[in-house]
Amino acid sequence: MRVFAGIKPTNDALHLGNYFGALRQFVALQDEHPETLYFIADYHSMTTVRDGKQRRANTHDVALDYLGAGVDPERAIFFVQSDIPEVTELTWILSTVTPMGLLERAHAYKDALSKGDTPNHGLFSYPVLMAADILLYHSDLVPVGQDQKQHVEMTRDMAMSFNHSYGEEIFKLPEPYILKGSAVVPGTDGKKMSKSYGNTIPMLATPKKTQKAVMGIVTDSTPMEDPKEPVGALFDLYKLFADEAQCENLASRARAGGLGYGHIKQELLGLVLDYFEPMRERRAAFEKRPDDVRDILASGAERARAIAAPVLESCRRVAGLGTTS
Ligand code: ADP
Ligand code: TRP
What domains are there in the chain, each with its CATH number? Predict the structure, then answer.
């Protein structure tokens, strides 16, 4: 059973949605499965980020977040997507068995259109690159947040279509893995937390930055002394960090009145900072050793390529590509 997943290095630090939707599962699955591959999707970030220096810095920051969160390079193969350029060849190959209609139905693409973005071809074919990532490593299980489930389903369609077209089971069919209960983490404005909405709470930023984000959670204007129903983004975020008894206790204090949203935010801030403290320390330790981080990624790329090369080769063989095989 091979586990495979990645996160894009876009402008901001990784946030609570990335952690509860993805990274937390990455770390847990590392203990359960002997073969895990985790990567930083820097090619994918090119559909939005147009600054090379910034991409390199973001990639390094995201690598630190992964390592801080507990991705263990002794167990997981940890690498940067663009260190394995074979994935772009597979993207082309898969694009030739992908109907336009399939891509037109992709939620991420439709969302970009509805936000008024001018989509580039890269954004349109984003799910093909993602499928190439997954299929190049014969992945079985793909831990993602709810919003990425459709992309994994599209990957299955592309794999089946290729296998069927060329009459051989070249690609394995992957399954999405979504942990129940933390499928969609709300942002500070109540919408899905996302780097592109500017509503994030960073997971491993300085306490000051975390505080600023937590204090910015939008609530209604019920005065402090009035009773409050324990619903909405603030309470949903609280639930991610508190056990059942703590949540019930908060709910009854809120309903009783006299507890302001500001107090609840302070409590939440304390929980967030405590929860991530060991990870923040581990991140800081890696931050002091940039050469080690580079070595970890270089050795991850080498191991990843050893898996990818034969898969691509078998794909080229059945497709009749190249002059030698
Ligand atoms: P963003 O939307 O901030 O750009 P990404 O698309 O890079 O985040 O997502 C990386 C991973 O984190 C994916 O597996 C995605 O499903 C997960 N994820 C992102 N935001 C959330 C959220 N608000 N709730 C749950 N999972 C999320
Ligand atoms: N599209 C994913 C996201 O936005 C990132 C990603 C790229 C990915 N390739 C992948 C996730 C392969 C899992 C498997 O979060």
Answer: 2-185+290-319 (3.40.50.620), 204-283 (1.10.240.10)
